[in-house]
Amino acid sequence: MRDTSNLSGVFAYNHSPGHSSLPMPPVPHTSFIRVALVNGAYHSAYLEGATEKLCSEDSAGEELWKGEDLGISVYHMRDGSDLHQSESITKSLCDQIFAKPIHWSVATSFPDTAMHAVDSGPGGLSGIGPLTARNLEGRGVRVIVLGEKGDRVAELYHTKNVKYEDWWSTKWAPALVKTSDGQIHLDTPFSRLLGKPPIMVAGMTPTTVKAGFVSVVLSAGYHIELAGGGHYNANALRAKVAEIQAKIPAGVGIMLNSLYINPRQFNFQYPLWQEMRKEGLPVKGFCVAAGIPSTEKAAEIIGGLKEAGIKHISFKPGSVDVIRQVVNIAAANPDFPIIMQWTGGRVGGHHSCEDCHQPMLAAYGSIRKHEKIIFVSGSGFGGADDIWPYLTGDWSLAYGVQPMPYDGFLFASRVMVAEEAHTSSSVKDLIVAASGVDDAQWEGTYTKETGGILTVRSELVEPIHKIANRSVKLWKEFDDTVFNLPKEKRITWLKEHYCSRIVVMSIDKTIH
Predict the structure, then answer these.
(1) pTM of the entire structure?
(2) In the CATH hierarchy, which top-level class contains the domain 197-433?
């Protein structure tokens, strides 16, 4: 019992949905333990020797079955070997029950020809079928759980309408396609939706506010989001679209990134974007950024976009719970393309507090149940070598699951150093000079300068990566002190610390 209590303590952390913008502690997932009500310590070393005792004393050495008696293959629960080759099936079965651990994913590593598995046990939480289905998710094996109520018996005997599961590595894998001009292109759901390569530039204020940079990316044949955060009235947004339209080839569509968290901007940009589309302007997509609406509100937003003739919408979830909310939105709007943009905590600028992989391991299957979800990710990608494993899906093999291909990739902070970006040369130099860190170390930015970067809270009260210069270090200090206080106490704090802060900043300025 002491061991169980200690283990429970290790897994006690529960990352609750209401705190998805807080830094992740060392154990960034929720785990549950159920105690089995059994009288013996089965599948453990405590029962070593029980097999010999049972075989010699209870069965008197009699062999109950022989390998050739098995009509079908029966697999060992620990190593997946076929019991046909076992010298003693009785001894093997006893060993598996008494002293051997169960490695169920190994035992159910079926050949590629397997398409269905049937669980004839009780089903529910006590059955092995749901666990098997989870282990085989994305492998093309449909698990039919009969259960004590027989809910799935009809499917078992239905020979005319057999249901199958998808192989993720086949259905969502990239392919090559030749277009009418004879050129070869990558073919993914992203490229099919937009007619462009599976790489995009995400909306950023102020980088993608500028017409010059947006038009250069569009003219090069890539997808980019015009940042709505830099447009404060309808005239400014209309003028920007007209400026971009004058710089890009005819027929190229424009997408707006609008901040849902900012009602004043969103409430004029969303209807204006529909109005402009009805006027015939080349606005073809709309991104709901910095927040995810409810399923009902999202349906209202999508309905307005569809009615105006806008072709697709994007959402940017930042946690597993919010990913599932986007999945719910897709389920409620099955005929409208949704670009889901996932970025983990490693990305530049505004970022999630999550590891980039763990949420995908948890939610990829639910995402792929909806063919209208176009899955795009960005998490420090920089070139073909680091994108390739995610394009093919091979990145997930290291976690013991099926390949999980991505449909597209987004670049953001990285393009701030591009020649065409309007970023000042001194800022470009600072970005390039930041040393960066390995994946396992990025969470250090929450507490100290890490790889030249600090995480602070932006004006949207969301975590954002910043180059750790003097001003950002002061920003971080204020985050941890005055900005951490209730608003009514901040003036008092500033008055109390005014002189000391002026002295420190003056010394800091002199040193630098």
Answers:
(1) 0.82
(2) alpha beta
